[in-house]
Amino acid sequence: MSSPLSNQVEQALAELERQKAAIDEIQGGLHSVHSTVTAKNRAVSVTVDSRGAVTAVKFPTSAYRSMAGPELGELLVDTIETARSEAMARTVAAFESLLPAGLPMVDLLTGGADPEHGPLPMDKLLAEMFRTAGPDDDPTPPTPAGGR
After folding, report:
1. Is the pTM of this model over 0.70?
2. What is the mean pLDDT of the chain?
3. In whole angstroms, what is the distance from residue 80 CA to residue 56 CA?
C-alpha cells in the first residue's frame, strides 16, 4: 500500500530524472554550439564556443594590414565580444525551457549586470529565483551553512 507521501516522493524522483535527462541532452548539444562573427569591415572573423572561449581568429581580407595597431586591437575586442554575446544567447536559449518563466538567466550567467543599478546582488538573484519558482514555494532563500 502506497502512502501519499511515498507517491509524492516517487513523483518528485521521476520529475528529477526527466529534468536530468533534459539537461544531459542540452549539455550534449552545447558541444556543437559556436558563434562566428565577421567585423563590418570584413577585416577579422572570430569564432567562439558555447562557453565564449575563442576557438578561431581569421583575417578574410587584407584590410587588417592597413589598420593601426590600436584600431585592429579594438576591432578584435569588439568582434570577440559580439561573438561571445551571440554564443551566450544561444546557450541561454537552450536552457530556458528548463527554467521558471521570468528567471533572469542572462543575469545569472553574466554576473547580473544591470546598466541602471549595477550588478544584481546574489541574494536578490536567489530571491528572484525562489519567487519565480512558484506561489507555493517559500520565497526566502535558504540560509547557507555557517549562517550569514
Report:
1. no
2. 76
3. 10
